[in-house]
Recover the amino acids of this structure.
């Protein structure tokens, strides 16, 4: 990894009452923005559309670990996780998700990794 | 997503005193095996080698969500997460990681998502 420490923080983020969950372009842009908000280095991004009214899975691979999103438009629900090693502040990603998906309710938990 | 329910379980797995953490072929095979052990449907896999003695990041995208691994060979440490929606039993993946990386110590936590 690019950091000299394996210490990191893993944020699990559940969005309820959310919108734009089938919008692939917006999800792509939001993953990029969330990574940039944390100062992370983007290595690769992969998006998969499930079709037939289904959701989208997005994975952005970072030098500092990853961000993933899985959306269920039929439940207005999205599950996101943001894992970054080193001194990155994963909480800086949250406003990007709020702005894009406008959830009515958010549940968050943070977990120390590698300590 | 392929499941009719967004309910899922997210397993965070920390391996300490682990081996084979630079072995890209083994990591590739282990991600496949872990997904198969849970009965998950593999959509895509991406592996990134950091080089210069650094670790590997691996992401396997599933119809049921994802598995990721980030390794720090210099610390004999790997951070894994296994997220599957529906009725999948994520704990069935653990023996694949134990067999491949032979950790001296494992820390695990499970988190309900989408409930």
């Amino acid at each position: 990894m690019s950091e000299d420490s394996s210490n990191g923080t893993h944020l699990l983020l559940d969005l309820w009452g959310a919108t734009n969950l089938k919008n692939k372009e917006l999800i792509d842009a939001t993953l990029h923005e969330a990574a940039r908000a944390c100062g992370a280095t983007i290595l690769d991004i992969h998006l998969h559309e499930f079709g037939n009214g289904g959701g989208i899975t997005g994975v952005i691979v970072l030098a500092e670990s990853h961000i993933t999103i899985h959306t269920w438009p039929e439940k207005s629900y999205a599950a996101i996780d943001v894992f970054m090693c080193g001194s990155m502040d994963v909480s800086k990603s949250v406003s990007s998700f709020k702005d894009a998906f406008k959830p009515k309710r958010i549940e968050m938990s943070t977990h120390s990794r590698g300590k």
Q: What stands out?
A: Chain B has a mean pLDDT of 93. Strands of chain B lie at 8-16, 42-49, 56-62, 65-72, 77-85, 105-113. The two ends of chain B are 16 Å apart (CA to CA).
